[in-house]
Sequence to fold (108 residues):
Amino acid sequence: MSDAIDLRQKLDLFEDLWHPRVVAELNDIQFKVVKFEGDFVWHKHDDTDEAFLVIRGEMIVEFRDRVVRIGEGQLFVVPKGEEHITRAEAECHALIIEPRGVVNTGEA
Fold:
């Protein structure tokens, strides 16, 4: 890859929600763009952390004991083993950073 990756341009290429697209890889780490709105499912990843960088909008990561709001330009890491749900009250665009092969629903 010899060109910079324009994340907003990649997000303009699709409309569907909750279907991450891989835009780059670094060793065994994948960078995925995603659009979403509403609630996902409660889940956890026993063996890996998961990072979200919000590109447009705002997302919520809810844990059983707290809620974290992530705005445009903000990055948040969900620690491995912590059950959580992701949601957005309005359409949100984000970059997910996680190891190759991770199932987005974890053990759910």
